[in-house]
Amino acid sequence: MPTYTIKKGDTLYEIAKAHHTTVEAIEKANPGINPKTLQIGQVIQLPGGGGSKPPPTQPGNGGGDIVGAHGGSNGGGGYVNYSGPASAYPPRDKWASYDALWKQNRALMKFNDSDQEIAWIKEAIETVSRSSRVDVRAILCIIVQESGGNPRIPTTNNGVRNPGLMQSHNGAEFNPARPKESILQMVRDGSEGTKDGDGLKQLLAKYGNYYEAFRGYNSGSVNKGNLNDPVGATGDYVQKAANRLMGHSWPGM
Length: 253
Fold this sequence. Notes:
Mean pLDDT: 90
Radius of gyration: 18 Å
Oligomer: single chain
Number of helices: 9
């Protein structure tokens, strides 16, 4: 198995991105590794050949190098009460495929959105996945979780202004005069962050896995031993996100 020597400023997220693998795969190959305490000169194992190119995107997934657009299951099944630390939640290689999740969530978006708006949301998700290197399925499911995919969802403000499709940290909201552009910006703000707060990209780099990143996105802080701890926000936020990523269905989803 290839190895990599930690340099100043490295994170598992950036190492995984550079070597076409995932944070979860690196953690599995290096039991006991702590993403927050990497040491310069530390040697880690790189899974899956390390420098190999990622598989090509499958037809129908939007083309280009979209993270998470290939592979995955067909989804299905009912709600599961996931709990505990991130290791107790489904790994990325068990998530439903992007095609399956898009089909499921497009049906939910149709309650609020026109076909053109849905097409713009899909284009924005795929564009931002390419630039942020955040899994396209995670972006999609957090959009649906935060807003139901409704670009006109009202802005909330409980001490922090949270507008738009991803209820970002003081980012953009829907502009009916520039609908396509504002949809793209809303997805960028939630995925890549704003000048006032982190997006999924920064939180994934900080915590080293998607589930803790989701808790950080919702709460601003994380109880790593119990991701259902709301830390002042929504208790089942991570649990619901995991169910969405698995393609599960439940009443009121």
